[in-house]
Each structure stands twice: as structure tokens, then as C-alpha cells.
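Mods, move this if it's the wrong board.
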Amino acid sequence: MIILPRRRRLFTGIQSWADWDEKKESGLASDDTFVCLMENLSAGGNEVGQGGGLTGADLVLTQSGNIAGLSGGRRQMDGADDFFAMTTAALDTLISNPSERWTIVVKGTDIQTDAVNNNFLASFRNAGNTENIALRVDSANKLGHLYDQDGAGQDFLLTTDAMGTTTEYYTMIWADGTEKVRLGYATLKPTKWSDFAANDRKEVANAAFTGDFSGETWDGTNHIGTGPNGAGIGCMVFKLDYVILSKLSFIDNSA
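Not the wrong board. C-alpha cells:
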């Protein structure tokens, strides 16, 4: 009997969220996951990510407001008119997938809202304003969301504790296809629900909000660093590390 050598498993270079070193987009980017690290040294420059099954213009975060170039691995958002825009097709591919699973990550530091308005780390919605996903920060620097699914009524939540204004955070909102949509912030990379301190996480109140956006079209405004209005009210002051949108749920809700 001839024993053939076992074929070695080819290493693709793609890591899990838990193992990713956050140094290269290619380490995490896949057909399921879009990753865009801040890399452009030029003021007013766009950013181009990798993965998510996207191509061409759908990989681009298009800047507005003449965002400062890369410094210390981040880009400074000025809170006046700086933001990035994503395409409708990118959101349709990554969030409206039939698995009802998705994750949005915005990693940044020195997150500082103003004393009056809610500002936004990310805001996605359709033209009819019946589908909304947003990571917002209130006037007390508490993380929350503005969430609506199928026009069932917007759901507003805020964490109990506020984020520090000189700290680096992973801010996340996600759906696992089973539980209700959840959000949270953490200083160390979270991979499970218990990694978020009890006062730094929330679950949506509406039992119907399980993250099912299958078949929806995100043809409204899709922004990073501001709300649906773009420049002006809603713009956030912070330093942006990276943005991730995935068809996968990065967080284990049962642990």
C-alpha cells in the first residue's frame, strides 16, 4: 500500500477578528469582511479598503471637508465638515445580506462630542428613512444608536457610562441573526458580550430588531464621522483608526 503525504493546508493570510493584528487590511479582509485602515498621508485624500466582495468605487471611502492626512496611524476629523461617504452598493452587499448577520466597527481615539448635539461615528440609512443604523454619541459622550428596521419606529439607546475623551475605543454595533441587535465600546478588542463592561454596552429594546435588512437598499446617506446631514451638526471630533463592515458577527453573544 502506498501512503501519500498529507496535503498541507494552504495559508491564505486571512485571520479571524480575534487574531487580527490590525496592521494590514489584508490580514482580515475577505469576501465577507471589508476593512479600511486610515493610510492616506495627503490632506483631502480618500481611503481605499479591501474585501467584502466589493470592487472599484465601492471600496472607496470618499472624503469631504479636506480631512487631514495620516498622522500617528490616524486621521483627525475636525467636527465641522469632515466625514467619509460609502456607496449604496457597499452597504447593500455587506448589511443587506440574507444571513441577517453583520458587524460595524469604528475604531478611534479622542472621541469628543459637543455639549448640545448628538454627533455620529457612523450613520447609514435608506432614502425613505425607514432603515437606520447609526453609532451616535450624545452630549455627555455616551455611546448609543439610532436604529430602525422596516419603519417599525426608531429605537434610541445610550450606554450608562460615558467614554473618555482621550482614550482609544473599539465602538461596535452588530447582529448575529438570532439575538437582538447590540452595541458597545471597549478599550481592548472585544470578541464576546462579556468583554464589554456592563455599563458600556446595550441591547436594542424592540424584540423585532434582530438585524434583518435582507433585500433592503441603502440609498440614503452612508457616512463615517457624521450623521445623515453631512457637514455641520452631527460631525464628530475624533481621530479615526479604521472602519470595518462585515457580513459576519464578530461578537459571541452567549459568552
